[in-house]
Design brief:
globular; three-stranded antiparallel β-sheet; eight-stranded mixed β-sheet; 33% helix; 350 residues; binds flavin-adenine dinucleotide; Aspartate Aminotransferase, domain 2; 12 helices; alpha+beta
């Protein structure tokens, strides 16, 4: 895998050593998509982890932690995304309860999958329970790599907006945090409530946290630096090849207001009997409500539709060769704001 100009890892074939077995093409979930089983009708739930502290440390309703805890209690291993020592996002695994913590919370950066498919297969072949959480394309890749179904695998994907560039993340960190060492980064800070993407970081030996990285979150939400394929994602379906899909229950205030206190509610889509059985095993730890899937997906468009391509993406990548990332993002956001203002005025005049 090699990082491209935009900062995304892309597969490269060494033509000198390639034996032309085409195994890479047969394993690629885009070139050779695997069929999704249709023997189980997807069911939707709204869910909240009863452990308030866990929920507040999670991005949504804290369902990942509940599934991870169950997996560890079965003697299993939990795979997910965490920060490494340079605050880059990487996939890794843990076999302990305390080890779950770094995997909690969404990191809105493309994670490096590394050797985790291989490691997960080793655990699965040894008969150990495995929870693997990733974006829908990562779970597609895992399933293609494994080539067979395992009863001891709980594959969990996310409703995914799209993954931002690791290069843009690195540049944002280095130009914003010039002094001091980071001790924590939260993409979904809940101090002002669950709704929104509020980025907050803390430095070692500092009692207060800072918000001046927020421009990165705003640029992510305006789609300036997502992976190109995210604008035409092949994994946008209701029924998935994961056992469970985790997401934010956006719009919950409309269809199940009792499950909304603005501290985070998860949307769960259960796609398989394995997913349903494991959800039943953790039901004591969560508040769970059966919901109408059409209601739930009406207010969470990213389940079934990709974000729109923006021409600003091309401009963004040209300009960051000359100007700091923060200046470019804030400039583009300002242009968008004025465009909207002018459009509103024109509509009013009509
Ligand atoms: C890039 C990205 C985009 C998303 N877009 C949407 C969206 O548009 N709509 C929506 O409803 N939900 C979206 N989500 C999902 C949402 O942010 C929560 O991750 C999800 O609801 C789980 O929350 P939780 O409270 O159960 O657990 P949390 O404790 O918040 O668990 C987060 C889980 O996500 C995994 N994870 C974190 N970062 C990454 C990453 N970069 N790549 C792969 N896996 C990761 C962790 O390993 C962990 O398993 C997105 C998540 C990511 C990572």
């Amino acid at each position: 895998m090699r990082e491209d100009r935009e900062g995304f890892l892309q597969p490269h074939i060494d033509t000198d050593t390639c034996i032309k077995c085409h195994k890479c093409e047969k394993t690629c979930p885009i070139i050779s998509p695997i069929t999704i089983p249709t023997d189980f009708e997807t069911q939707a739930f709204a869910a909240i982890n009863k452990d308030e502290a866990v929920r507040m440390r999670s991005s949504s309703g804290g369902m990942f932690h509940a599934l991870a805890k169950w997996t560890i209690e079965q003697g299993g291993a939990v795979f997910g995304a965490r920060f490494n020592e340079n605050w880059e996002v990487v996939h890794d695994y843990t076999e302990t309860l305390e080890g779950i913590e770094p995997f909690m919370r969404s990191k809105y950066v493309q994670s490096r999958i590394g050797d985790t498919f291989k490691q997960a297969k080793q655990f699965l072949d040894a008969g150990r329970q495995v929870l693997f959480v990733g974006t829908p394309c990562q779970i597609g890749g895992l399933k293609s790599y494994l080539k067979k179904e395992y009863d001891n695998l709980l594959a969990v994907d996310l409703i995914c907006h799209g993954v931002p560039s690791p290069k843009v993340w690195r540049a944002s960190l280095s130009e914003t945090i010039k002094e001091g060492k980071l001790s924590d980064i939260i993409f979904r800070d809940k101090q002002e409530g669950w709704r929104g993407v509020r980025l907050r970081y803390t430095l070692i030996n500092s009692s207060s946290s800072a918000k001046d990285l927020q421009y990165y979150a705003n640029g992510f939400l305006d789609n300036y630096f997502l992976q190109k394929c995210c604008y035409n994602c092949k994994f946008k379906t209701v029924h998935r090849n994961a056992d469970i899909t985790l997401a934010d229950a956006w719009g919950i205030e409309n269809y199940a207001p009792n499950m909304d206190d603005n501290k985070g509610t998860s949307l769960l889509l259960v796609h398989t009997a394995i997913g349903y059985t494991i959800l039943s095993a953790i039901v004591q730890q969560i508040n769970l409500l059966d919901i109408n899937i059409t209601d739930a997906l009406k207010t969470n468009k990213r389940a079934t539709t990709s974000v729109s391509y923006t021409k600003h993406r091309t401009v963004f990548y040209l300009l960051i060769n000359i100007f700091p990332v923060s200046i470019v993002i804030n400039g583009l956001l300002k242009i968008e704001k004025y465009k909207k203002k002018i459009l509103k005025r024109l509509i009013k005049q009509k």
